Amino acid sequence: MLVQILNLTWKELLQLARDRFLVLFLILAPTLQLVLLANNTARGIVDLPAAVLDLDQSALSRDLVLALDNSEEMQVRFFPPDRGHLLALLDAGDAQVGIVIPPGFSRAFFAGNDPAQIQALVDGSNVIVGANARQVIESVANQLLFRRLRHTPLPDMGGVEVRTSALFNPAFDFQWFGIPSMVAFITYQVALVVAATGFVREKELGTLEQLLITPLRRLELIIGKALPAILVGLFNFLLLLAVQRLGFGVPLRGDLGLLIAVAALFVVAIVGQGTLISVFTQTQQQAVLLVFLVAILEVTISGYLLPVESMPLVMRGLAQVSALQHFMAIMRAVALRGADLAMIQGHVLAIFIFALAAGGIAWRGFTRAL
Questions:
Q1: How far apart are CA 245 and CA 305, in angstroms?
Q2: So what's the architecture of 48-167 in CATH?
Q3: d(Cα 142, Cα 161) in Å, to the nearest integer?
Q4: What is the gyration radius of the CA atoms in the chain, in angstroms?
Q5: CA distances (Å), 302 to each of 144, 192, 297, 315, 335, in order?
Q6: What is the pLDDT of residues 72-100, one digit of tens each?
Q7: 3-state secondary structure of 10
Q8: In whole angstroms, what is the distance from residue 173 CA to residue 179 CA?
Q9: What is the pTM of this model?
Q10: Domain boundaries, the chain
């Protein structure tokens, strides 16, 4: 009995080894996943874009701003003149953390007794940022201040207290951050799989040649095969959006029509990417495995696991050409921040360029393959 089992096992391994694509996938996919996840998550939260409103304008407050900027976790990019401009930066997503140093901060600190207070306004649409912001600011502030006063300690010195306010997601509800991102990723997966297996199915069934001898022109053939994937992807998005709102209570503060229009553009872009995969694969199994491999890369650079600003330079560059990363950012911005087209136009333009590039390459590859 044991010999028979071992013989069958050996036969299956030999059969597996004959499929070079599958062997390559089994080696490459786990390795790539580990390397990407390790590189992205090992650094933790770094280089968060911050805006500082210094209303104290003392030597101590200026040193605090410099210390925050020199920390690994934050990068002070903006110095708004007033609270209104600070909130505008957070609304637009240009800054993820806003720090307000109130008048009398230095005086309150040197007076001792009670802690001197700083206000931190964090972008609650990204709970990963919000959860770390207070700890980072408080740690940097107290390290600086205790270092300054090491030789001249004050009795009953209270240190620094950071009062955190979460904008757009006051309760730091992870579902408000996670579910819009999941909706984007699931829509991406569905559209990519349907598009990637479209032409490959015709190849496997041997019906692609029959389609080519019909009166349909090549452009009409591509559009006819791509349109079902677009409709399925868009229907899937609308269904998930309804579940997000009605089932989980995630708000939709922006314009629904704008979000649907951008989602349609995103689905078109992903269908172009899926069609490109189908051109260069010969079986549905190969197409699905390649989709899985691409999805690993996409989710790693999407900003779901780690903010894009905290990624290594190479990964940050890849994220800028990822349609999924841009659509996830749009989902959170429109749903939670109530962003309008002007606030997300950079992300929309990136998806549009991706759609043109993916569609153009897919068309060129399809015509050459035929």
A1: 23
A2: 3-Layer(aba) Sandwich (3.40)
A3: 9
A4: 26
A5: 34, 16, 9, 10, 17
A6: 888 899 999 999 999 999 988 889 899 99
A7: helix
A8: 10
A9: 0.83
A10: 48-167, 174-369
